Amino acid sequence: SLTMTTPKRLRDLIREIRSARTAADERAVVQKECASIRDSFRDQDNTYKCRNLAKLLYIHMLGYPAHFGQLECLKLIASAKFTDKRIGYLGAMLLLDERQDVHLLVTNSLKNDLNHQTQYIQSLALCTLGTICSVEMSRDLAGEIEKMIKSSNAYIKKKAILCAFCIIRKVPDLMEMFIPATRSLLNEKNHGVLLTAVCLITEMCEKSPDTLHHFRKVVPMLVRILRNLIMAGYSPEHDVFGVSNPFLQVKILRLLRILGKNDTDASETMNDILAQVATNTDTSKNVGHAILYEIVLTIMGIKSEAGLRVLAVNILGRFLLNNDKNIRYVALNTLLRVVQADYNAVQRHRTTIIDCLKDADISIRRRAMELSFALVNTGNIRGMMKELLDFLENCDPEFKADVCSNIVQSTEKYSPTKRWHIDTVMKMLRVAGSYVRDDIVSILIQLIAETSELHNYTVQQLFLLIKDDIHQPSLVQVALWCIGEYGEKLISGVCEEDEPVQVSEDEVIDVLEKVLTHNYSTEVSKEYAMTSLMKLTSRFRTSVGRVKAVIDAYGGSTHVELQQRSVEYSNIFTKYENMRSALLEPMPLIEGSRSKNVLANSESSTDLLNEGNIPNGESTTSVKAKNINNTESQNILDLLDVVPPAGNSANPAPPPSGGANDLLDLLGDVATISNPAPPVKPTPAPNLLDDLMGGDTTHNNQMNGNDGPYKLTAFDKNGLKVELTCERDNGQANVTIINVKSTNSTATTMSDYIFQAAVPKSFQLQLQSPSGSTLPPMNDGEVTQVIKVNNPQKQAIRLRIKVSYKQNGNNVTDIGEVSSFPSTLWQ
Question: Is pLDDT of 742 > 90?
C-alpha cells in the first residue's frame, strides 16, 4: 500500500522561509507547504496532524491565509491526548473568533474540558474561552467559570478569574453572577490569585456604579494587603529589584483610586498607607518609579489631604530631575493633569519645568511648553515671558503658532503695564516670523487701538522694526495698519514714553513702496500697504501727489485685489475728493474682548444646519464665510417659516440641502437655530424675533426684572461646565430667558468653543451671539450667551445642547439634554 512521506518539521520550514531571498521565493515556499498540509488533512489516519497544524499556525503568523485549518483545530481539541489538545486549543485561539460560526462548535468541547480531572487541560480550556468567547458562549459557560473560581486549586482559580474578567468585559450583564464568589478572593494568600482578583474587581467597579458602591467596603482589606506587601521581608518568589511584587501594588493602587474617587470615608481610610508607600518605595529602580507614578495618580484622584497632594507633586518634581527621558515625560504629562488640583505646589518646580524647554526630546519640549503656560500668573509673568520668548526664537516650527497664541493670551490676562504688554507682543512678532496665525494680527491691532496713550510710541517703534526688515509678514501687517491710522503721530517727533524718532513723510512712503514692490512681501501685506498709503493722504500734507501716483501705478496689477483697491482709491481722488477726509478718518474701537477671541485655529463660528453626522471625538466643520453672512433675523425667519415683509428687498438665501435632515438625525425630533455670527460684530443685526414676540431683547447677557432666577447645571464633563440661569420675561408671559455661562476648570485653554441648542418643534428658540469662543483655564474667564425660548403651548421645556471645542490639539464634541426646568417658567 502507498504511504505518505514524513512531513517537513516546523524548524525546517522556518529555516527554509528565512533563507528565501525575495518575497516571491517566500510565497512559493509557503504555497507549496500549504498544499502539502491540505493533502495531509484529507488523510484520516494521519499521525502528523499536530506537526502540520503547528506549521500552519506559523504560516498564519506570517500573514498568509490559514482558515482551512479551523476544522482540524476542532478535531485535535476533541482528541483525548494532551499534546493534541494543546496544539488544537492554540490553533483555536489564533484561527477562530466570534465573527465565524465555526467557533460555536467548540463550545461543547470547552464545557467537557472545563470539568476535566487534569488541571492543565482545564487551563487550556480556560485560556481559550477567555480569548474567543462570544456573547452566546459566555452565557452558556459562565456558570462553569463561577464554580471554578471557588476551586481550592490556586492554579485553576487564577485562570478562572481571568476568564471571568474577559466574560464580564464581553457581557456586563453576567457581573452579578460573579460578585458573591469574588468577595472572598481578597483573603487568599497566593499572590497570583490576589492579582487576578484585584483586576476582576477593578473591571466590575468600572462597569457598574452599584458594584463600585458595594466594593467600597473592601477598602480596609486592600489597605491591609498593601501594608503587608511593603512591610514584608525579602521573598525571592515576589521580589523585583528589591520591591515586593510591584505588579500587585500597582493594581491595588489603581483599584484604591477608583474606590476613593468622590468618597471622603474611603479616601480617609487610605491616606496613611498612601503616604507610607510613597516614602518607603525605593526610587533607584524603574519598578519604584512605576509604583510612585501610580501613587501620584491615586493621591490626585481621591479626596486626599493637602499634605499628601504636596507630596505627590514633589514626587513628580523628582521625576523631572531623572536622567531617563521617559520618566521626565511622564512627570510633565502628569503635572499638566494635576496642576489645577494643587497650583502652588506645582509652581515650586517652575525652574525645573523651564529647563525642560531646552530638552533634546521634542515630546518633552511640547509638554514643558504647555505646562509653562499653565503656570503663568501675575507674579511671574515677566520672567516667564522672557523664557518663553527665548523658547519661541529657537523652538521647532510646529511649536511657534501655539506659542504665539498662548503668549498673546497670557499677556492679555497678566501684563503688569500697557507699555510692557505692547513691547512683549512686538518682540513676539519680530521673533515668530511667518508662523503667527491670522487671528493674532487682528487681536494685536485691537490691543494697539485701545491703548491710545501709547499710540506715538507704538507706531514709531513698529516703523523702526520694519524699516530695515520686512521679512516678518505679521509684524509688517500690524505696523502698516498702525502707520495708516496714526501716520501723523509717526512724523510728529513727539513720544512721551521714549526718545522720539525723527521721520519724514518721504521716508514713510519709501518703506510702504518697498513693501509693495518686494518679492518677499505677501499679497495680504501688499493690500495692507495700499490701504495704509491711501489713509496717509489725509494725514500727510506734502506727499499726497506722490502717494496718488503710487496708487495709480497698480491700476493694471495682475493681482486682482491690488488692482481693485487701486482703481477704487483713484476714483476717490477724482470723483469724491470732497468726501476723502471723512472716508479716511481713524477707525473706531472694535467692540468685544480681545482675551476671549484668542483662537488656536481660524474659523470661530459653526452653522449646525450645515453639518452632517459627527463621529465621537471629531470637531465639527467650520462653515465658510459666505454661509456666515446670513443674518440672525433671517435664520429665525427660515426656522419659523415666516415670509419677510413685502417692503423688504433682501431675498433670503435658500437653506442648505440636507442640513436640516442631518440636524434631525443628530438631535432627534427638535428644531434649532445655530450661532448666527462670529463672536465679535461691529453692529448687531436687527432682531426680528423680538417683533414676532412683541418685545425687546437685550444683547448684554442681563436678566430682565424677575426676582429669584432659577439656576441649574446643564453640562459638567472633562472640566467644561455649562450653567443656565432661567427667568420668565416680564413683558411676555410665554417667553423664557436663559443665560448660559460656560467655564473651563482644566489647566489648558479650550479654543474654538461653540455652544449650540435646540428645542422641540412646538417651541421657537433664539440663540444670540456668544461673548467669545475661547475658555481660559483654571476658571479664569467665561463665555456667556443668551437664549430666548418662546413657549406658546405652555409645555414643559426640554433643551438639547451640543458643545464643541479644541484642547491640547484634540477636537472634542459632546451632546447633552436638559429637562429639569421648574414649572414656574411656563405655568
Answer: yes
Which residues are within 8 A (CB) of 34 and not within 5 positions of it... i.e. 6 or more apart? 56, 59, 64, 66
pLDDT of the residue at 665: 38
Phi, psi of 81 (to 5 degrees): -85, 140
Grid coordinates representing 748 are 489648558
CB-based burial label for 329 (10 Å; 0-12, 13-18, 19+): buried
Distance (Å, rounded) from C-alpha 455 to C-alpha 478? 13
Query: What's the CA dihedral at 207, 208, 213, 217 to 10 degrees?
Result: -50
Q: Three-state SS string across 151-168, please? A: CCCHHHHHHHHHHHHHHH
Eight-class DSSP state of 32: H
Helix (H) or strand (E) holding 670: strand 670-673
Query: Residue 778 has what pLDDT?
Result: 83
What's the pLDDT tens digit per position in 63-84? 999 888 888 888 888 888 898 8
> Could you give the C-alpha distances from 708 to 704, 723, 731, 738, 824, in angstroms and in order?
11, 16, 17, 13, 11
Provide φ and ψ at 717, rounded to 5°.
-155, 140
Q: Give helix 246-260 / helix 264-280 axis angle, nearest 10°.
A: 150
Spatial distance between the Cα atoms of 456 and 500, rounded to a whole number of angstroms: 9
Could you give the C-alpha distances from 539 to 36, 456, 582, in angstroms and in order?
A: 93, 14, 12
**Which has more pLDDT, 443 or 5?**
443
User: Exposed, middle or buried: residue 184 (CB in 10 Å: 0-12, 13-18, 19+)?
Assistant: exposed
- Model-level pTM? 0.61
3 state SS for 169-203? HHCHHHHHHHHHHHHHHHHCCCHHHHHHHHHHHHH
Give the span between the Cα atoms of 276 and 620, in whole angstroms: 48
C-alpha grid cell for residue 201? 474587581
* Bridging pattern class, strands 710-717 and 720-728: antiparallel
Overall average pLDDT of the 644-658 stretch? 39
Q: Which residues, in sequence order, are CB contacts of 399 under 8 Å at separation 6+?
A: 365, 366, 369, 391, 392
pLDDT score at 611:
35
pLDDT band at residue 608 under the 50/70/90 scheme: very low
pLDDT in tens, 89-139: 999 889 887 776 777 788 888 898 899 898 999 999 999 999 888 888 889
> What mean pLDDT, rounded, does the chain reach?
81
Q: Which residue type does 198 have?
A: V
SS3 of 217, please?
A: helix
Kindly state the helix (H) or strand (E) to which residue 738 belongs, with its residue range.
strand 735-744
Instruction: Look up residue 134 and give its three cell numbers.
Output: 462570544
Structural contact between residues 465 and 432, judged by C-beta atoms closer than 8 angstroms? no
